[in-house]
Specification:
The chain is an alpha/beta fold. Helix content is about 45%, strand content about 20%. It has 28 helices and 26 strands.
């Protein structure tokens, strides 16, 4: 029995409590603990072992350790490959930690051994407690599998009260806090009394484990033995019902704290009650839990406050995009009305225009200007109605449609919601998504939008829907009718120059790691890039060319160690290669049988040359150039008009009997259609048949009737822009299109003479060279 205070090497234990008379096998890995063990072995002295209060503490101090520990003797040490020690120790006596007198190179403790009270063998209370403890241990051994018969025999033969209490505690008590509490108790009588209560509790737990084990075994067949542990865990959860109950309480707490419509609240509450009544292993349970989680995660009633500062919103829109005045004006009108009424349904706008003009990116700017969240959903190639409305929740793997999912992603009920490429939806046997979009984009009914998965109304009326499309032709009429159409035309060369200077150049220089002054490029060079290397309505190809210039500049700076690269027309060819596009000066010459028309495409306006040749024959009319039906009919109408008015037009009246006529539209690999080339075909035919030249500086567009009237056409701005790019001086347009001339930028109108015409005589007077 130790009775003197002493200095001993100390090892803090993590997750372990050792008792006197107990042999413990454990591993030591911390450097100071390894040194303490080595010192105890070398000096043939004892170790002081005490338990840490916190497992994660790597450098414990006095306040991190329990003060009651055990003086122990090292019986065996084995050093592992990683430098740790595996050791066997035997507890000798309780001791109190008074002070840590050294921390390096190992922890040294100043301890006071705790002598135990001497209990007489004639003490009846002690004898009664010992007998009861042995009986409880025997009962525990009967229901627990880890007590060996040898251990039971050893414990029964112990005559010392303190040794019996410590040995039984070491075998029965599992919880760390209870083991430490028993170690702190120096009085053996009090220790036995406390131990008996813990043992009775452990016996009940062991019986429950035994009962659960039997139940699991009865449910398993011979081929499922390898799943025994898994099934045992499930049986425990079934017995206690803790996880399911906690999850349901979380659901109810969330539901209570949410501001929900009455119908939605009742639906969620009903589903939670159904889950509560289902057995945890029911196949319906995960499906219903997923549904409740979805419903509780949706942003019911959450709205982002709109930024109603119109001047600030205008500044943001102008900062992000050049031009697009009608789009900006419409957004500012919405904010103005919202500031006056304080409540207004979200607008449903559709931006229609060629690629690369900023339809998609303007959506992000609108969200930033209004202070709302932004979500984007691409509809290109969508051909399943369930993509919009979702699947019914009875299907395996069912989930809401992309409309509801995107609103959840936004985290608010009033985001700016961009429906990209709305003109490219398809339909097949799985349904028509365009029809499903009718309810989404109808401001009169989208406040009660019903997703198949949710089964309750979902309010979309606060959402600002923006749609983008390249053409209206493929959008069904009912869907088109529900949107406010805003057409975005192509940019002029001057507009492209401003966009390149204000936005594209700085963006690409930043992305390529170039300093603000590392690249010098003049407006003249940018104009040459625009005209010689791009031919588009938007600015995507222009941005790619600027990116190419930045890459070349970055390489020059890295290789030649220069600070600045100056781009000129001379070195532009080295950077971008030879120009891809140039003005065909030959097409501007006055020629017989060749007229210049203007066409609209989804990527902007284009110049269209129409060539006519005549040859001796029997009046056959041949049309080539991959023309569509409408364009062929325009040619037939022009041909019939000329036959009916041959004398007036100075054309031989019998040409339809003696001459074959061949009408060709170049670039035969490209399909062409539409009625707007009617007057161009008529002019080329009259020129070829009469021998009069057509002016090369004139281009024209318009539909012709059999009476020679010129009917209005669409896409006037794009067509005039195409004429301007090609250096055309005069454009003939239908008189009914005069109202559209105001949409053409003023600087373009100052360079191109736009002449309205009402009939084919006026066209011929201006187009044919006298």
């Amino acid at each position: 029995m130790l009775d003197k205070m002493m200095n001993l090497p100390m090892v803090p234990l993590r997750g372990l409590v050792i008792f006197p008379h107990m042999v413990l096998n454990f591993e030591v890995g911390r450097e100071r603990s390894v040194t303490a063990v080595d010192t105890a072995v070398e000096e043939n002295t004892q170790l002081f072992l005490t338990t840490q209060k916190e497992l994660r503490c790597e450098d414990p101090g006095m306040g991190d350790l329990y003060t009651t520990g055990v003086v122990a003797r090292v019986k065996q040490v084995v050093r592992t490959e990683d430098g740790a020690l595996r050791l066997i120790v035997e507890g000798i006596q309780r001791a109190e930690l008074l002070e840590i007198i050294a921390a390096d190179p190992y922890m040294e403790a100043y301890v006071r051994p705790l002598p135990e009270p001497v209990i007489s063998q004639d003490d009846t209370q002690a004898q009664a407690l010992m007998r009861t403890t042995v009986e409880l241990f025997e009962r525990y051994a009967a229901v627990s599998s880890h007590i060996t018969p040898e251990m039971l025999v050893t414990l029964v033969t112990i005559q010392d009260v303190s040794e019996l209490a410590d040995t039984a505690a070491a075998q029965v008590v599992k919880r760390l806090s209870q083991r430490q509490e028993l170690l702190d108790m120096n009085d053996p009588i009090a220790r036995l009394e406390k131990l008996q209560g813990v043992m009775a509790q452990e016996i009940e737990i062991a019986r429950m484990e035994q009962s659960i084990g039997r139940r699991v075994k009865e449910q398993m067949d011979q081929n499922q033995k390898e799943y025994y542990l898994h099934e045992q865990l499930k049986a425990i959860q079934t017995e206690l019902g803790e996880d399911a109950a906690v999850e349901l309480e979380d659901f109810r707490a969330k539901l209570k704290g949410m501001d929900l419509p009455k119908e939605v609240r009742e639906k969620i509450s009903k589903e939670i009650s159904r889950i509560d009544k289902l057995p945890p292993n029911s196949p319906e349970s995960p499906m219903m839990r997923s549904y409740v989680e979805w419903m509780l995660e949706l942003p019911w009633g959450k709205l982002t406050a709109d930024n109603l500062d119109i001047a600030n919103a205008k500044e943001i829109l102008d900062e992000d995009h050049y031009g697009l005045e009608r789009v900006k004006e419409r957004v500012l009108e919405y904010l103005a009305v919202k500031s006056l009424t304080k409540s207004m349904k979200g607008p449903i706008l559709c931006f229609v225009g060629p690629p690369g003009v900023g339809k998609t990116s303007i959506g992000k700017s609108i969200a930033r200007a209004t202070g709302r969240s932004f979500v984007r959903m691409s509809l290109g190639g969508v051909h399943d109605e369930a993509e919009i409305r979702g699947h019914r929740k009875t299907y395996i793997g069912a989930m809401p449609g992309r409309i509801v999912s995107s609103v959840k992603q936004a985290g608010t009920m009033n985001p700016v919601f961009l429906l990209d490429e709305v003109d490219k939806m398809a339909s097949d046997f799985r349904g028509d998504p365009a029809s499903a979009m009718l309810e989404v984009l109808d401001s009169a009914q989208n406040d009660t939008f019903r997703d198949h998965y949710l089964e309750v109304p979902f309010d979309l009326s606060k959402v600002m829907f923006l749609a983008t499309a390249n053409t209206l032709d493929t959008i069904p009429g009912p869907l088109r009718d529900r949107m406010e159409i805003i057409e975005i035309e192509g940019y002029t060369d001057e507009e492209k120059l401003h966009i390149a200077r204000r936005h594209l150049l700085g963006k690409q220089m930043k992305e390529h790691g170039l300093a603000d002054d590392a690249l010098e490029i003049s407006d003249d060079v940018l104009r040459h890039v625009i005209s010689g290397y791009t031919r588009e309505a938007g600015v995507r190809a222009l941005e790619r060319q600027i990116a190419k210039i930045c890459r070349k500049a970055a390489r020059t700076i890295a290789e030649k160690k220069v600070r600045k690269v100056r781009v000129t027309r001379a070195n532009l060819v080295k950077m971008l290669g030879q120009p891809r596009y140039w003005r065909d000066e030959h097409s501007k010459q006055d020629e017989v049988g060749v007229a210049t028309g203007l066409a609209w495409t989804t990527v902007g306006g284009e110049i269209l040359s129409i060539e006519v040749n005549t040859m001796p024959g029997k009046g056959k009319l041949e049309l080539t150039g991959q023309l569509g039906d409408v364009m062929k009919e325009s040619a037939m109408a022009a041909y019939s008009y000329i036959r009916a008015h041959a004398a007036e037009l100075g054309v031989p009246e019998d040409f339809h009997e003696k001459l074959d006529v061949h009408v060709h539209v170049p670039e035969g690999a490209t399909p062409k259609d539409g009625p707007s080339a009617g007057i161009t075909m008529t002019t080329a035919l009259v020129s070829a048949l009469s021998g009069k030249k057509v002016s090369g500086r004139v281009a024209m567009t318009g539909e012709i009737t059999l009476r020679g009237r010129v009917l209005p056409i669409g896409g006037l701005k794009e067509k005039v822009l195409a004429a301007y790019r090609e250096g055309i001086e005069q454009v003939l347009i239908p008189k009914d299109n005069v109202k559209d001339v105001e949409e053409i930028p003023r600087d373009i109108r100052s360079h191109v003479d736009i002449e309205p015409v009402s009939n084919i005589r006026e066209v011929l007077d201006r187009a044919l060279v006298r």
